[in-house]
Structure formats: structure tokens, C-alpha cells
Amino acid sequence: MCGRVWWGGEVLSDEEELFSAVDALLEQAVRDPLPEPAERKRLREAAGLTQDQVAGALQTRREAVGNWEAGRTEPRPPKRAAYARLLEGLAARFPAPGAAGNTSTASAGPTATPAREAAAQTSAPHTAPAPHTAPAPHTAPAPAAAPRPAATSRPASTSRRPGAKTATPGKTTAAVAVDPRFAHGPLAVIDVGADRKVVAYCTGGLVLDVPAKSIPALVDWTLQEAKLGQPKLSGPGKDADPLLVLTESALERYGLPTTLTEEERLAGRLPEGHKVIKQLARAEWKLTKRGFGPWARIYRPAKGSERACVQLCIPSWHALDSRHWGTAAQLPPAELARVLGAYASRVMTPCGSTAVTGLELMTALHPPTRASAPHADGTRHSEHNPGSLGKDPVDPAPCEAPDGHPLLADLPRFHIRGPGEKLLEEAYDWARPMTDAECTLRHLVGIDVNMAFAAGANGLIVGLGAPTHVKAPVFDPKLPGSWLVDLSHVDLSRVKVGKDMWADLDAGLLPSPFTPKGERPDGPAWYATPTVAYAVELGYDVAPIEAYVRYDNGRYLDAWYQRLRDAYLATMADLGVDADLAPADFLAAMDGYQERDPQLAIVVSAIKATVKGGLGKLRERPRGEGWRPGESWRALARPTWRPDIRAAVISRTRINLHRKIVKHAAFTGQYPVAILSDCVVYAANGESPLDFLPYRDGKPLPGGFRLGVNPGLVKHEGTQTVLWGEGVREQFDAPDLNLARYIKDGTVTDADNGE
Fold first, then answer.
1. Contact, 601 vs 723, CB < 8 A?
2. Is the sign of the CA dihedral 173, 174, 177, 178 positive or negative?
3. What is the pTM of this model?
4. Would you give the distance in Å from CA 278 to the centre of its chain?
5. Among 32, 476, 735, 739, which residue's Cβ finds the most Cβ atoms within 10 Å?
């Protein structure tokens, strides 16, 4: 036992060994100094690293890294030395604003105008930088300097980014190598200043002079000199193409209209004869099938592994949908670069609407192919990437196909498929009249599940290939697919709520978990695996009549969920809403969080829209183009057109919510008044969720609702009075009006039509 100290015991090291241990600690403290916790977080985010990545490199848990960055704990040897080395390397690569030694890039590139960099600091990101930039706060703009001509032969200097604590100086070896191809970030906002000079506002406050005089020249400059782009998210994947955002002044400069005509807007593109399109054709650049529209992709066919492609985003052509991007399209160029750069660094470089980007993120994380092992002669070939959806589309099961699909071409023209023919897994839209007891309470309180559909995707096993039809199968909750089964015998008045634990409930006050409208099924119907599995969980036997199952399956959406979860949590933390807040503190932090930094609030909105839109794209419907029922449409050619995966996520999301409702009812005797998608309304005497959510010693009901920012936890959606609820139902003569639709601000503009 020599050499050890037992706390509270009698065995002690001798004096010499104690002094040696103390000396070792002193040496360690000198050798491995660590910056302040906030600076640790800044350095990690400046490099575009996640806590998971740092934890993996240091062979520790993500929670440990979070605690180090929050100052709750400190790393211990030997991890402390490795962590200090990482931070020192990051500090050398991303010096703190105002610190000495802010050097220019070593290689020649576009000129960064110092005065314009200073002016751009008014929007330099202080929370969500791209992997190669450091954050800075929202500050007042500096006076503009006289314009300077572009000089691409000189090094491009990086901008100063004030507002963060100085990093501890240390070793000069960088722990994380920044890809020099993308030294200036994933994107740039192209604008024309008052001096008529074209400039590119990049992430991190960097501003570059742009010498290009035409769109083809701008594309060449972007690919050859701008150093824009983003590294691939997965080993077999591809790097993100650089994104150029064109302001109205840039559109005028390059001969493009600032707005589209009504005809062009409906077509979604400029006419083929436009002069800019002719310029591109003469320069041997091509456009994708969607043409020169709000999100235009300009490319040349790839030569080997080398890609030549630039993405354009044109806000004044409504590229940034205000439902998801708020007022982003009206932001000044530097601030728009900050918003889009934050999104790009945490999600991915936008490549279309948030829905398109959400779908592309799935593919970026699980590319369809990979390089094979080398052959005897050293060559490789492309092969299927395990865990992906592959490169070829697969047909859905007939029950999974939406109306009008070619698989249903033989159905009579006006045939309406019922639940025994069609898989109908959708989110809740349910409400009921209030009871007399609920009418005696004062308030209606709405709670909303954070990132509900993302949480529904987490850990979900989905099919990767084509379905297999089986008759009279034995139900397997781990086998994804669609099952024809009769669940009308499931009685919510008595359900299983735990191992060998049953609860008696008032079934008339609960929605059925098996239908979107909450109605009890009256016969066989098609359900996704999570729905049938929940019937078994509630304590009832199931006997499927037939099924379409997918034996090739996996957790395809896990990486997608984790990427979006981390993006959401990091951005909410920057807005002052941390993941470890106590319930009351969380509610206080959520109050007005969007006003703390409206630009980052836009990023939060876009992340949420990426989740919902990406899942919606899995069952994209026809978009005009002369389509007729029974004919194919463009989306069907994608391997990511997978209505079965969408149905499984929605099924699991709805079941997750119902499970919490049942747990809450069994424990408290309280039942929901209305449910809309992921929002649930309860009657309560107080105005806060804490007035009806059960917490014991600060701990929530196991399996029930829990307040917090993490996906799957709930937040306060809104509170209205019971009199308001009864009043609007009486006003519109709708006793089942879904109050969850209006609980946020209480405004009811028209009778509820279910849309």
C-alpha cells in the first residue's frame, strides 16, 4: 500500500513521497495551463469541432467536455495535458480578438481589405463561426476607409474579431489542421459598395475584394482564388460547394434582375435566352435542371475526383423563405453572412430551401457509395456504402404509396383508399370539449416538445432497401415495415404503464394513439412498426394479417439527428438557454430568448425547419410540370424518396407523445384538452407548466413530461384563460375547436378547418 493516501484511513505516504506528489502537481499546473472556460468553448467552436469530437480524441465522455467548458469541473492528468495541447494549438490557429500575432495567411489569395474587415465586424459571428473562423460580438461598425483595388497576388489577411477572452499562449503546433482550400469559410455574400467596388463578405468578419466583371468570371474567381467551401461531413462523401449570396446591388452589377417577373417566379427560373445564361454557355459552364433560379448551381462535369461547382443564393428572388429564415433576406450583407455562416458551420452549407438542405444532409452523412478496397493492381472501384440508401431508388409498398403514384395507376379514378389500403401515419390534430371540473380552473397552458420529429428519428431503425411482402407474419418490434393489423381491441381505460404495472384511465378523455385525429380504429388498418409496438407495450396482443417488412435496415437517421441536435443545442446555449438548467431557470431563460440575438434566433428557426422539411422531402409530391395521376414525377428518381421512413418517424413521434400523456394521466389524473402535432394543452389553476407538471425534489415524473431544451423535452408554448377557450369555441360554434393551434398568442382569425 506504499505511496497511497487513504482518505479517513491510517495509511499515509512518507514525507518525501508527499512532497514529490506536490511537486508533480505544481509542475503540471505550470506546464499545462488552461484558458478560462468560456475561451475553451470559443476555441472549439472557432475550429468547427463538436464536443463529441473532442471527447473522442481525448477518450472521455461528451459530458466531461461540456463540464470543462462550463467551468464545473477541470480535466485531470493525463487528459489535462492533452486538452491543454489541443487548446494551445487552437489558440495559435484562432487567436483571441485583440491579441498580438494575428497573422495573414501564408498563401496568395484574394485581398482582404482591412477597413472593410473592420466594418464587417458589426456582424462577425461570436457564436456560430465556420470551422476556420473565430467568433466576434455584434459591435458598432468602424469608419470605412478609402477603396483599394483588388490585388490577388498579395496574401489575404484575416480580420480581427474582438470580444472574446485572450487565449493562453502556448505551443505553436496546431492541434487541428484547417483545410487551406476553404480558408475563407463556406460562403460569401457578394455586394457592391458605395464606391462601386464588388466585395465578398465572408464568415468571421472577413471581407474580400472581388475583381470579377461577369457571372462566369465570378464563378472562376470563386473556384480558383476565393478559398470558399466546406470539408465533407463523411469519409466517402464530397466537399460542400462554395455558396455565393448575391445582393440586389450585385445582381444589377452582373446583369441580373433584382426581382423575377410573375412568369419567371412561377417557372422558378430565368428564361433560357437570358444574356447571363448565354454568357455561362459561352464559357462552357452548365446549369442543373432547375436552371438559373433562386438557388442556381453552376458547374462543369467532374474530372476524376475534382469538382467544379458553385451554388448561388439570391434572397431577392425569395431563396430564403421568410417562414423559416425570418428577416434574413433583409439583413445587411455582413450580418447575412453571419447568419448563413452560423447555419453552415453547425448544419451544412445551404444548398436550397431548408427542406432540400435537410434531405441533402442525410446523404452527406451517409453517401450512397464508397471506394472499394484496392485491387491487386492498386485500383479501386465504387461500391455500395453500408448503412446508406444506395444510389438507386426503390418502390414503396402499395400501402405506403401516396395517391397518384404509378403503383396505383390501376385504381378507379375517383377511388378513395381507406385505412385498410393506405398507411396513414400523421401527427396529431385532436381536441375535445372540456369537462365541468376543467371549466372551474382558470387557465389553459400549452407545452411544446422541442425538436419532436428529430427526437422521433433518434435511434429509430428504418428500412434501407426494398420491402418484402409477407402473409400472417409474427410481429417483430425491431423489424421496420408496414403492418395490416386490427388494433380496435386496445382499450385505453386499462393500460400497462410499466413492468407488471397497470393503470385505470378515463379513455373518453384520451386520444387514440393509432390515428391522427385520435379516433379509435374500428377494424384492420396499416400501421408503421412503432405504432404496432406501442399496442404491445400497452399490454395487448396483436395478430398482423399481412406486412411489408424490410430486412435490410439500420439507424440511418442517427447521425442526421445528432448533427441537428448539436446545432440546435449549441445555438440555444449561445442565446442563454443551456441544457442543464433547472426547470424554473429554463422557463426564465426561454422568456424572450429570441430578442437576445435576433440573428441567432433566425438560425434556430432554420434548424427546426431543416428537421421538418427534410423529413417532408422523403415523400415529396408532384410539383406541377403537367403531372397527371398514375404518372411518375421527378422526386421518385431519388433514392431518398422514402415515404416509409417518413411514416416511421411520424409514427414514433406521435407514440412518444402519447406515452408521456398516459404516464401523466396515470400519475396526476390530468388529461389533455387539445393536441396539435407536438403541442399539448392542459387546464390548470396557474399560468406556468410548473403548475401542473409533477416534479418531486426537482426531478420529473419518469417517462412523463420534462422541461428542458433538449430534443424530446418540453417548453412553455403559451397560456390563455379557460374563459378564452370557451369563448372562441362558442364564437365559432365549434365545441371541438383545436385550442392548441392558437394557444401561443390567443389570436383566432377564422374557424378551424384542420389545415
1. no
2. negative
3. 0.78
4. 37
5. 739
